[in-house]
Amino acid sequence: MKTILVIGSNSFTGAHYCRECIKRGYNVIGISRSAEPPIEFLPYKWDKKDIVFEQVNLNHDEEILKNIINKYKPEYVVNFASQGMVAQSWRTPEDWYQTNVVAQVKLHDILRQTEGLEKYVHISTPEVYGSSEGKWQKENENYKPSTPYAVSRAACDLHLKSFLNAYNFPVVFTRAANVYGPGQQLYRIMPKAILCSLTGARMQLHGGGKSKRSFVYIDDTVRATRLIMERANPGSIWHISTNEIISIKELVMRIFKRTGGSFEKCVEVTDERLGKDDTYLLKTDKLRIEMEWKDECNLEAGIDKTIIWVRENLNSLIKMSWEYSHKK
Questions:
Q1: Rounded distance, CA 200 to CA 265, Å?
Q2: Structure pTM?
Q3: Cα–Cα distance between 265 and 26 in angstroms, integer?
Q4: Which of 41, 64, 70, 115 is 20 to 30 A off residue 242, Cα-Cα?
């Protein structure tokens, strides 16, 4: 039984990845900067399973992190941790560079000296490419980041490439489209739209929802990530996406229609966010051919599954904050 260290195990995709790996028989160690959230956001607990969890802040707990790595000696490290949120990164960009670059460099310097590490999977983002501008982007696309968030992620990618070249550091990169599904943070577009439709609360639609995105269901995403962890060669880059593109406005309208809410009464159109990219179009031929992966859950089915999760947990979810809370 091999051991996986999942960094950012409290994140939406990180928590689902823990669930995926438990099902596959791995020994899972999870670390995140905050204590474990309520069970509604921890899918491995839905199966009445658990992980070894350690609360570690990459910005402050370098020695604790070293001790955990030395104690558990993971064969795989999968890193979902980053300071997210594009619009907010303009307000205090130094926080994004600290978490997404400086703290990550310290982590990678520890890992490159760790014996027995077979693979390090770095969860990157298509934001490093900038807007697709109608072009389906391959894995070797040039970087054109347009926000402090995107710049910080691109800088970390470049740093890792230098470690790959200098130390043969066994890094592989993944870049996924918009991931969604049950257990997602409530400030994200899909759960928030469902909640507003069900309760009549108001929500903002930046730029009128004209930007277009591809939405990939969480189970498809974590399955692809596990295959990449197990099979990919160091230095490789992998896109995880569907081929279906939809505008944010159309997505929200579909959700309101399926849940019986009033789009006109609940949705307020506001100005577009600074630096927001129009669309991301990720080619996934490489993943589909070499890993024999395919997206098994289409958008309609995925929306329905997410609606079911919100309805089943509505009494508790309406008592929680639906807004992003910044943490350092």
A1: 8
A2: 0.96
A3: 48
A4: 41
